[in-house]
Design goal:
Oligomer: single chain
Radius of gyration: 16 Å
Number of strands: 5
Strand order of the largest sheet: 3-2-1-4-5
CATH topology: Rossmann fold
Structural class: alpha/beta
Strand content: 15-25%
Distance between the termini: 32 Å
CATH superfamily: HUPs
Number of helices: 7
CATH class: Alpha Beta
Shape: globular
CATH architecture: 3-Layer(aba) Sandwich
Length: 145
């Protein structure tokens, strides 16, 4: 039923909370885990004031993200899982949805930060936007303290 599972990760322990669930699903289905890290574009913040600084910020973020996702991917492969990883830049929810469509993902497995009240209103909910717009099932795991 599930051949490809998209797992968005942002470098936080909260986001990684979905991994045991995604691994269990991948194991039971013989599915591939597609790890996705979406970086913001810091170039937009610096582009007009200092283009050189913008390029440096993008390169540093890309290097950190590649190292992070590479470590997770390596651990999963060592445990016997079929994995692939992607690094994209853009609006997080839109990138997740775009990758899901582009890669013909069967299910998206992600953690929710569990923000409520003003924090949710100010920061928005990526998980909520993904759930509302996704064409495939979304497995949400609520963050634990």
């Amino acid at each position: 039923m599930y051949r490809r599972i998209l797992v968005p990760l942002d470098g936080s322990k909260v986001a990684e909370g979905v991994l045991p669930h995604a691994k269990a699903l991948a194991y039971s289905e013989g599915a591939e885990l597609i790890l996705l890290t979406v970086g913001a574009n810091p170039a937009l913040d610096f582009a007009f004031s200092d283009p050189g600084l913008a390029d440096l910020a993008v390169q540093e973020q890309e290097e950190r993200s590649k190292k992070y996702i590479g470590e997770i991917e390596s651990q999963l492969r060592e445990a016997g899982f079929k994995t692939a990883s992607l690094l994209r830049v853009g609006s997080v929810a839109e990138v997740i949805l775009g990758v899901a469509e582009e890669m013909q993902i069967d299910v998206i497995a992600m953690s929710t930060h569990g923000r409520t009240g003003p924090a949710r209103w100010l920061l928005g909910s990526i998980a909520e936007r993904v759930v509302r717009s996704s064409k495939v099932p979304v497995l949400l795991i609520r963050a634990t303290a």
